[in-house]
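To illustrate this point, what follows is a protein record of this kind.

___
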Amino acid sequence: MTEITGSTTASSAPKSTPAATAAPGSTPLPEWEQRFRASRVSLPDWAEDAPDRALFVSNATGTYELYAWDRATGEQRRVTDRPNGTTDGVLTPDGESIWWFDDTDGDEFGVWMRRPFHGGEAGSGDEPAVPGLAPSYPAGLALGRDGTAVIGRSTDEEGTTVHVVRPGAAPVEIYRHRESAGVGDLSHDGTLIALEHTEHGDAMHSALRVVRPDGTTVAELDDTEGGTKELGLSVLGFAPVAGDTRLLVGHQRRGRWEPMIWDPTTGEETDLVLGLPGDVSAEWYPDASALLVAHGFEARNDLWRYEPGADAPVRLETPAGSVSGATARPDGTVEYLWSSAAQPPVIRSTSGAVVLDPPGPKAPASVPVEDVWVDGPGGRVHALVQRPAAPAEGPFPTVFEIHGGPTWHDSDAFASGPAAWVDHGYAVVRVNYRGSTGYGRAWTDALKHRVGLIELEDIAAVREWAVKSGLSDPEKLVLAGGSWGGYLTLLGLGTQPDDWALGLAAVPVADYVTAYHDEMEDLKAMDRTLLGGTPEEVPERFAASSPLTYVDEVRAPVYISAGVNDPRCPIRQIENYVDRLKERNAVHEVYRYDAGHGSLVVEERIKQVRLELDFARRHLTPQPAAESAPQPVPQSAPQPIPSGGE
């Protein structure tokens, strides 16, 4: 067994824009590394009352950090500079200040910091935004025009609390409950606060409550009927104009996510029948005259404009692929982040312009996805397949790259990880198993009580298709994934030991009972919903869904990577699983790194992919007889850390 440790310290993060190609005269970097190193930017957020002031995330220094952008002058400045990166930031409505969340090495537990928009160097001028509030997990943030802040907090001891903070005054608690909740939005005039909560005990389906800043209730909207009906609601945002109390709400009343308009002051609900299949979300145009509609269907996304009362929405022209974020600007244009599996992301505008073009070489293209539909035990399963360009015909060694969530989905969007496997001659299959979003509420909600086992039934159906169709070499099938995908990887290796030649599990749930006791409070609530109780109340369900239960059945070599500060899939439960592998002398390798639930450092991410590629190369490729002779202890020999990883 090999144990490798790593860190994402300040010294390992480059302080200038990393080149995506090698220096003149040196060996060119492989395309898969160029994709990771190419500069990326997120869709810029902008201040409601100062739309030329924007905030975005970029990896330009080699670590994902926040950047301020003055669109009037073109000036861009890095706002944060932390060894493990920063991605959570919010502009005040007037654009004068930036709030950003400060945790410790990716543990997601910390406080909000504040700095002026036109501050100095990153790290200078920062101060605690609310000195009177202790560290917590974030549970939503809304900032008002008069300097008021509404802050959602979650801790293991208190559950969820919401505080209202006015300039110069101490924080005032207006909400507290043991179950998960969060701040949705603050109305334009600051008199209404929208909260999402799960006081009924179903963490998958929120109810809404609108309160005043003193915490008194204005109105309730609850489609769960006390937890007996599995219909959820979500806050999409108050109308962004003065005197308008309408709240845009997401609902599931017709079996999928759709928007409606609710006025909590009058109780009036306006149904919006848009005639679009799949899941539909929306946000207001800045003058509240129309809605920008985001439509997701069968792993692709497009955009529409809808004026309430109109017969139908009007489609906005976007290329085929996936729109992962969009915002309507005051001039009526729409800016959106677009990519496809073959083409890297770009921020476009409906005006035809590229909005924000990061410096440096661009990421090399990859190959497009093919859509596959397979009959599974719970209905038709949608999978996305990428084939290597050469050789032209299979069967190929194949990586089943399983998405996390579980309430998430893979889409026709650019992803450097799968593209790296394709570059190395692997086919990549991504499965939108039951539990995935985008295929209706019943598909997403199908997980309950047989958690993990249901998803693996769908993955097995697609695996069978992949082998029978000639796509995949049945002797070279890799089960891989991160977070919930890492959990399904370990569970699949134990419950389907004959199906997989190799497993690659990143930040996984490995011991479900210990994970429950160590994880952040919101995830405990989700696990109680999924499994119907705590480990003490339903021990048989936790046992049936825990990879640790089946660890003695694992026969494939398994590689595990884990963040030592991870609050979602904590390290202790992974160590329990690894200890059992050690007791059996099972073939496995473990890589621990100094971050949380994944890394925001580019070189660290490259190092992790390189380790996975090398593990697969060594254990899937037949070795010469001298190398494959039996060893005294049947476990993989220690390997050096690949060069160039830090």
Observations:
- The first strand starts at residue 2 and ends at 7.
- The longest helix spans residues 602-620.
- The radius of gyration is 25 Å.
- The mean pLDDT is 92.
